[in-house]
Amino acid sequence: MAILKKDYLVNALSEKTDLTKKAAKECVDVLFESIQEALKENNTVDIYQFGKFYITENAGRKGINPLTKEEIEIKPSKSIRFKASKSLKDSVK
Fold first, then answer.
1. E strand segments, 3-92
2. Each residue's pLDDT expressed in tens, for the chain with a length of 93 residues
3. Using an 8 Å Cβ cutoff, are 54 and 44 in contact?
4. Residue 90: in which H helix or E strand, if any?
5. Cα(36)–Cα(29) distance, rounded to whole angstroms?
6. What is the pTM for the complete model shown?
């Protein structure tokens, strides 16, 4: 199994369209920036037949430092989640 990076998307977009690699890179960059901006504003990004990016809020809690066994307070935080659409899941099977 290979790990495909952003350059793979740029090359694929360039090959499947009439875009130059420079223009394809700009398109991919704008797409990623748009998703990032939407998530920063706590919006959900739902891409039809692909999946959904969304933010979850993790509540603060008490934890234990494994080295000192001292009780610590873990601050609330946000996480980015991705839920694949049914069609994406089916295409991978």
1. 45-47, 51-58, 61-64, 71-74, 77-84
2. 899 999 999 999 999 999 999 999 999 999 999 999 999 999 999 999 999 999 999 999 999 999 999 999 999 999 999 999 999 999 998
3. yes
4. helix 86-92
5. 10
6. 0.80
Extents of the domains making up the chain: 16-92
- C-alpha distance across the termini of the chain, in Å: 15
Q: Is the Cβ–Cβ distance between 26 and 17 less than 8 Å? A: no
Write down how long the chain is.
93
Beta strands 45-47 and 71-74, pairing class: unpaired
Query: Beta-carbon neighbour count of residue 28 at 10 Å?
Result: 18
The domain defined by 16-92 folds into HU Protein; Chain A (4.10.520)
Of 8, 14, 88, the closest CA to residue 47 belongs to 88
Beta strands in the chain (DSSP E): 45-47, 51-58, 61-64, 71-74, 77-84
